[in-house]
Amino acid sequence: MKNILLIGIDGGATKVSGWVINYKEKTQLFQISDINLQKKYSDYPDHNPGYVPVDIKTQLSEMNNKIHLTREEKQQGDVYMNATADVIIGLLEKNPGKKALVGIGMPGLKTADKRGISAIANGPRMPEFSEFIELKIKEKKLTLGSPVAHIGSDADYCGLGEEYSTDGLFRDVENAYYLGGGTGVADALKLKWELIPFDQAKSWIAKAWEMQCDKGISFERYASAAGIQFIYSRYSNIPVEELNNNHIYPPQILEKALSEDKAALDTINDVSIYIATLLYERITTIYSGWLGLFSFVNPARELPEKDHKYRGVLLDRIIIGQRLGDLLDDSKQTGLLWSRIIERLSELFNKNNDNRLKKKYLQNGKFREDFIAISRLREAPAIGAGVDAWLTYKKNNLC
Length: 399
Description:
- The chain has 2 domains: about 5-155 and about 380-395, Nucleotidyltransferase, domain 5, CATH 3.30.420; about 170-375, ATPase, nucleotide binding domain (Nucleotidyltransferase, domain 5, 2-Layer Sandwich), CATH 3.30.420.
- Helices cover about 40% and strands about 20% of the residues.
- The protein has helices at about 55-60, 70-95, 130-140, 155-165, 220-225, 225-235, 240-245, 250-260, 260-290, 320-330, 340-350, 355-360, 380-395, and strands spanning about 5-10, 15-25, 30-40, 100-105, 110, 115-120, 150, 175-180, 185-190, 195, 210, 295, 315-320, 360-365, 365, 370-375.
- The protein is globular, with a radius of gyration of 21 Å.
């Protein structure tokens, strides 16, 4: 590792963050360093703040054929890719003489070779993403330790970060579920000591964003920071843009709820109910198989199979991470959110007739709070991206 600079990239909806990741040979664990860079897309002159993505049906129809980028899409995509390249270049320039080993997490469906983005709900398609990055680095006469192997998902990278970081909460537990909420929502699973990507388990369990509550709203709205803001916007009739301008985000919405703001109280109440219901669904789907508690955002989505090889497994830990974790932690002393999540979980498990479930999760009729842990790894996706790059590097016998 002497000549290698391990970099984890976390690409989001508004910016790209990159961190230098330290690898500890003795423990074979990873730790985020204090060397990082961020680039906001809005800082680039060609950025289009009013960009409207190509219709998702068109994107999906072109995924396995030729992708026809619009002029606006190409321009917006160049901004995203330049921002990513600039972060990597900046980190390399801070560490002269090093070769970069880069892991990249970005939203969206990936191309067949996993090196580009072929469909994305809220941004531009970038099928030549990795090739673009590599060319920009080469133009600066900087060096990669190996080509970008693939672009990963932030959800999988959250799991890797929690498993391989010195501060990770997956490390010491056999069976756990991770729910991270930032701009979007990230699910990760560890069962029988192995990380299980949701894409590999989609036949029997659904991602949070795929499911919708009885109000017809995706669970992503209740578990992500941006989603909670959206719910408050609906209750308060204040546009999200105005909330952003006034710096009203989930922590401020919680504060408003404590001041008896009705829209904020309704928002926090909904978030409490649906997060608790989602966590209950996770525990019971793993233990008993799909029980059909929810419908799907996409009505054509195949129903999960009831039988799977992990039936009978009881989760030992639920981990809440990113900004959602911070919000729950801040709420512990308020009587709102955290307390209501515990109350709702208590109700759900008391109604369940399975004594094994009750024995595991209830104590004197109350859901055991110690089963829910708050992650301190705000940069779990970046750590996971670095971990993935390093593991791939080793697997290919390049070290």
